[in-house]
Design brief:
Helix content: 25-40%
Distance between the termini: 18 Å
Largest sheet: 5 strands, antiparallel
Number of domains: 1
Order of helices and strands: EEHEEHEHH
Number of strands: 5
Structural class: alpha+beta
Protein name: DUF2007 domain-containing protein
Strand order of the largest sheet: 1-2-5-3-4
Shape: globular
Radius of gyration: 13 Å
Number of helices: 4
């Protein structure tokens, strides 16, 4: 599997809550929430960035009521990047070169 997409309206690296975070990809909200579940189950913290806000928890009510469902940025702490890529089935060395 090749690495995540690099074209995005969201920054590749951000400072969030005082720590460096890396964008894994930009993808539709429902898909991002599925990836977040996989990451959470594997012990990796993640956050979603919409054009309006950061979402650390999955806002189920927003999804159910038709809140923002467009493309979002999916971020993980830089220190967990390799682990996150492995959990999602990407080759960390192949994808890591693009993200760094």
């Amino acid at each position: 599997m090749s690495g995540p997409s690099r074209d995005s309206q969201y920054d590749d690296r951000v400072l969030y809550q005082g720590d460096p975070w890396v964008r894994l990809d930009t993808l539709p909200r429902l898909l991002a929430e599925g990836w977040r579940r996989t990451l959470w189950d594997g012990g990796v913290v993640s956050v979603v960035r919409t054009p309006f806000q950061w979402a650390m928890g999955s806002p189920v009510i927003e999804i159910e009521t038709g809140g923002y469902m467009g493309d979002v940025g999916l971020y993980v702490p830089q220190v967990q990047l390799a682990e996150a890529l492995e959990l999602l089935g990407f080759d960390p060395e192949e994808a890591g070169g693009e993200i760094q």
